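User: I'm writing a tutorial on reading structure tokens. Could you give me a worked example: one chain, its sequence, then its tokens, then a sentence or two explaining what the tokens reveal?
Assistant: Sure. Here is the example chain.
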Amino acid sequence: MSHTSSRYSRPPVTVRVARWSATHPGRAIGGWFAFVLLCLAAMSVAGIQQANQLDLGIGESGRAERMLDEGGLEAPITENVLITPAGPDADAAAAEVAEQLAALPEVESVGDPVTAPGGDAVTVPVAMTADEDQAEDDVQALRDVTAGVQEQYPDLLVEQAGEASVMKDFFGLLEEDLGTIAMLSLPVTLLVLLVAFGAILAAGVPVLLAISSVGSAIGLYALASYAVPDGGTVTHLVLLIGMAVGVDYSLFYLRREREERARGRDTLQAVEIAAATSGHSVVVSGLAVAVSMAGLYLAADVNFASMATGAILVVAIAVIGSLTVLPALLAKLGHRIDRPRVPVLWRLTNQQRPPRLWPAILRPALRRPAVTLVVAVLALLALAAPALDLKLANPDEAAFPRSLPVMQSYDRLVEAFPSTGAAHVVVVEAPSDEAGDVRAALEDLAGRTATDDNFAHDQEPVVAQSEDGRFSTLRVGVPFGPDSDEAARSLDVLRDDLIPATVGAVSGAETAVTGEVADGVDYNDNLAAKLPWIIGFVLVLAFVMMTVTFRSVVVGLTTVFVNLLSTVAAFGVLALVFQHSWAEGLLNFTSTGTVVVWIPLFLFVILFGLSMDYHVFVVSRIREAADRGLPIRAAVREGITTSAGTVTSAALVMVAVFGLFAAMRVLEMKQMGVGLAVAVLIDAVVIRAVVLPSVMALLGNANWWAPRWLRRSRPAVGAETERELTPVG
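And here are its predicted structure tokens:
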């Protein structure tokens, strides 16, 4: 045996694991399903810990929330019954609704009816006894009373809106959409896989692995949520990512195993070669997604931390499943994996004639790589250009679907009573003996806001103090949308001018402002400060991983370049679609002229990870061909052509699943789905067929350049691995 092949006498760990699973399929399959059941049991017992306002708080607004909690001054959940038009009948309806609501155990207090400044409406404010988690369940009792009074007064419009009723209907809509997507994603995925494989079992195995990975990850996250509370989107993200990567990883492995069997290998040999090649690519891809998602921890934000935790768990489980239970299933099924065959599809997907489409697509990139690369890069940069004008906004009531009746009621309420919308909450902590001075200062502050157009004037601000006098609050309404420039300006006036001139003069007083406006401003400031660090972290680690994996600095640099190109192009499409109205009819939404603030960072991180799926798989096949001695352009042609069926099928699954999210009525989920689907499409088609082959054809053998110390390391991918593991005959 040569010196080169002796280095491979001990197979890689992916091969050793696959060999054990394939030779002990009963244990591997039984162990996997036992693991899944344990994870699901953990979820049913522990439940998922939801993040509260204290967990979500950032910056000054987060500090104010902690002060409110310590002083026991958290504002109760408030609902408002709006009655129009104003008049004697409206006064009678207001008295009736107040009497009935006051008798409910879910109600803490009912305020006096208030007439709008314009004199055209009356509202009855109602404070609920429940906290924010329970209020959504309890609010239905209040709505029943409101509906009953509406029946008594058919000539009036009696309606209810508030935090609990809005959230109840919003999350009801979200769950309805997600239920529809869960039902549609399985048949859509199965259909794509049936076209890819032409056989029912071969199509069903990847879906089974993906579903079990999603269930297991949600179960484990239920335990992890006690350390990293759920920001409210983790289970949706786990479903989204789990279905995509679970199917992808199985596809990579299964297609390679079938390819090797078609070459005459027996099942065990085919499984081992798939483990050495595609299995290695799966591990690298999974690590890339996990590393990219880990960048979200740098944001110091519970929402992003919970997303990262859920995504890392589902990717890790999908990788483990691909390396363990998948080889066991393939060994157990053997050639039966290709049964039952779908007649027409089987013939189409298993033709032995040389491919014609992909060599034709690759011809421009390989014959004239410089021209092709310049044209492609300019086209992608043109597509990315709208991102230069990307406008970001926090998700708030303005982005909620107006098809919800409660949102129509909310709009009428805020129009008549601006102070029932966004508000600033000034929180003061001072020694107890300064309580009188603090109250006087807050009343002075309230008086100054009463003559300032930056604040709402329809209801007088009220000062509240804790029992020990240490903590005090003042709520000041804002007559603007919480994410508007005007609302941010009113916050600046409050923080920079009015508070220092009033409460700031009290000895020993510590002040902080919270509320929807302050939450959004502080969140954006934190994100802007952390964004360069997160982007740098992801880029550097992606470069290091690819450099080490392929023992090539150039491959590492190329990876960063092409992934950045596809990501910024997706950002451009996102800005183009959602900041303008031309796509409203196509995608069934009302444009707010903005993109939800967390979407770009989330997309950058996750797309950089998901793009590595295809990149690692394709470059691995190119490297295998180059290791066999093919010239670089021939190696590129063979690597991309032989991986075309697998990557195309995987991309179609991702685009289909992400496209379903684009059909949701919740705007931020729609934006996430469109961004992911477009990026995957660009990555799988334009990058793979045009940009990557052009770059590699131009660079030639320089693609594999590395410092001497790195070249001396064992290559990560090579034909020797395959030949040494399973010689034919």
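What the tokens reveal: The longest helix spans residues 163-197. The domain at 355-403+527-709 is CATH 1.20.1640.10 (Multidrug efflux transporter AcrB transmembrane fold).
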